Amino acid sequence: MPHAVPPSQPQSPPTLEGHHLYVNDGLLSPTQTSRLRPSSPTLPLSELRRRYTEDGYLFLKALLPRADVLRARESYFRMLAPSGVLKPSTPPVLGQFDCSKSPSSYPGIGAGATPNNGKPGADATASLFVDLALQAHYAAWYKEEFCKHPVLRDFVAELTGWGEDTLSVKRSLLRNNTPGNKAIGVHYDQIFRRRGEDTSVTAWVPMGDISLTGGGLIYLENGRFES
Predict the structure, then answer these.
(1) Which has the closest alpha carbon to 222: 60, 56, 47?
(2) What does the alpha-carbon distance between residue 55 and residue 36 come to, in Å, rounded to a whole number?
(3) Cα–Cα–Cα angle for 188, 194, 199, rounded to 5 degrees
(4) CA-to-CA distance for 30 and 20, rounded, in angstroms?
(5) Cross-strand partners of 220
(6) For the segment 79-92, what is each residue's pLDDT rounded down to a tens digit?
């Protein structure tokens, strides 16, 4: 997940559009990064299939209705609110972190906060925050509505040609991150990738707007890996 470099860190030539981007182990050089090729859901299926085959991904915007995404986002942050992660008096849908709190009390799942990718929780607040983040995976608004959104399912069914044979696998990762914590490093998800075949499609869906320097998905070109 790329982020803007804090002023205290040494600078190097900017990467994309004048931004300095870095990952957990340092700055990305200008030759290391480029933008994903955007595709529109309105493009002909033949073109979308060609891009998916050639690039190994489709970067789609405005596939899911924005109102539905924001509704799920609000539900998520309402679940996390009892941990104190949100800035007081701000709408939950914004997901605005309370910067008066210690980032260590709000660790991201799978972001290396503990050795061997174990469950983070350095204090009682961190334990509560992580427990709530894990519980969100089983909430009806997430597993029954967001993950099974008919627009996403219908798009995959049409793109692949699977039609009514398209099934939703009950396996998902609902990630978060807070300012001051490490992002998730380079990896591949074994639950999706191990012995994977062309009979599955993985969808990474941001629950809200993501700026270039606000953290997002990095895809390893031609490698079918992401960070």
Answers:
(1) 56
(2) 9
(3) 110
(4) 9
(5) 225
(6) 999 999 999 999 99
- What are the helix (H) ranges across the chain? 45-55, 66-80, 124-135, 140, 150-160, 190-193
Quote the CA–CA distance of 109 and 120 in Å, as a whole number. 7
- Nearest of 177, 174, 172, 173 to residue 210 by alpha carbon: 177
CA 25: distance to chain centroid?
19
Q: For 163, how many CA atoms within 13 A lie in the half-sphere containing its CB?
A: 1
The two structure tokens encoding residue 142? 């997430």
101-152 pLDDT, tens digit per residue, is 998 899 887 665 555 555 665 688 999 999 999 999 999 999 999 999 999 9
Closest of 121, 93, 112 to residue 183, by C-alpha: 112
- Amino acid making up residue 187: H
Two structure tokens written together for 42? 């309105």
Give the number of other CB atoms < 10 A from CB of residue 187. 12
pTM of the complete model: 0.83
Residue 70 CB: number of other CB atoms within 10 A?
Answer: 14
Q: Are strands 26-27 and 219-220 parallel, antiparallel or unpaired?
A: unpaired
On the CB side of 27, how many CA atoms lie within 13 Å of its CA? 16
Please name the amino acid found at residue 55.
D
Q: Determine the Cα–Cα distance for residues 50 and 60; give it in Å rounded to an integer.
A: 14
Kindly state the DSSP code that residue 18 receives in the 8-state scheme.
G
**3-state DSSP assignment of residue 40:** coil
In 3D space, the residue among 210, 226, 184 whose CA is nearest the CA of residue 61 turns out to be: 210
